[in-house]
Amino acid sequence: MNYRGYILRLFFRILLLVAAILGLTYSIYTEKTTYMVIGSLIIFYLIVDTYNFVKRRFVAMDDFFQAVKYRDFSRWFPEDRGPKDIRFLYTGFNEINRTIKEINAKNEAQYVYLQKILEMVDIGIIAYNLETGNVLWSNDYFGEILDIPSFKNIRFIESRKPKLFNTIFDTYHREPHSISIALQNESIKILISDTVFQVDEDAFKLIVIQDIDTTLNKNESESWKKLLSVMTHEIMNSIAPISSLADTLQKSVELAIEHPQKNTLELDDLNAGIKTVKNRSEGLLKFAKTYRSLSKVTNLNLQRIMVSELFNNIQLLMEPSIKAKNIDIEFKISGARLELDIDIHLIEQVLINLILNAIDACIEEDAPKIKVLASQNQNRDILIKVYDNGLGIPEDILENIFVPFFTSKATGSGIGLSLCKQIMLLHKGKIMVKSAEGEGSVFSLVF
């Protein structure tokens, strides 16, 4: 802006005003009435002109400051109208508005980019005012993980789900750690951390959560594939010594046949070698069969199946042997006609496995009972639950029941429940368990 020109014009007006005042003073001293009147009019005119000269600049500045106050940066000041000094001022105002709009546009773009990134990541994020509880910002995934609708104040959660509120919002998690939270239809494990930050005089809390159940399931599926590849390699390495021993025994027999005088065949050594090959082969065969049951489950033959048809198949297959053991079993379907897109042979295998486990769990009870129930929840997920009234599963065992080759049975292989979990993952479903010692167990299949 041309401040120098403005100052010169103002200084010139002040000089004229001073000169006029001096002239008026001289007129009064010499008692020249005509000059006194003319001098007074000139002084009045100069005062009004100087006032208007200064005022229009302050009016323009006040107009600009009002626009800034109300964040009206779209205002455009006419640079081609008005006095020259004001046009220079308007040019400066327009440059400021243009710069602020560019900064705002960049900030808006950065905000949009950040918002898109935070919406795409598989973590839930929320920031809220610690005093008022008003939500500053949250992404959709936060509500999806916790199965809650959109809300503007965290007190909404406190009134609807006080336990969830206490765990997530009312407790501080300075270091990231995993916790289990009970939702309406299931229990999930999440990784949570939070921090408090200050903006002016307001304190805000930022909470970050991640559904690690889903992540763990994906990682576990990949780990299975790697495990099978590694173990197949190990099996082949174990077969090599057997082949070598068999080759040695064969050569000994051939030499004894060709030159019986020079090469005496030691029957004890031959028998010991054959037994070694036999025992090792049987062990490897059992080992390979166990792994084969897992490696085969890679592709699905999906069909639309009525749950009632699935239950009928299982009931016809299992009920006679269960009744023979004096165990009461009940199959029940709640609600409308339920249909599933499944590989029926694999899901039958899962249910058979769960029912056999339920038999083992409750067979020692005075009135053993198993219930197989199907229903649909509010999310339109189909649930199949297998209940038993057995002794329940100890907590230390419960944490590991889906780990491959972990078993608490003397004759167990540790494959059954691991196989069930893999089958459910292939169906994009999941298997869950709830159990308390002395109260029985319930295994849930969620489709």
TrEMBL record:
A Pfam family annotated for this UniProt entry: HATPase_c
Transmembrane segments: 7-29, 35-54
Keywords: Kinase, Membrane, Phosphoprotein, Transferase, Transmembrane, Transmembrane helix
Catalytic activity entry: ATP + protein L-histidine = ADP + protein N-phospho-L-histidine
Residues of the Histidine kinase domain: 230-447
EC numbers for this chain: 2.7.13.3
A GO MF term: phosphorelay sensor kinase activity
Top-rank lineage group of the source organism: Bacteria
InterPro entries reported for this sequence: HATPase_C_sf (IPR036890), HATPase_dom (IPR003594), His_kinase_dom (IPR005467), Sig_transdc_His_kin-like_C (IPR004358)
Official protein name in the record: histidine kinase
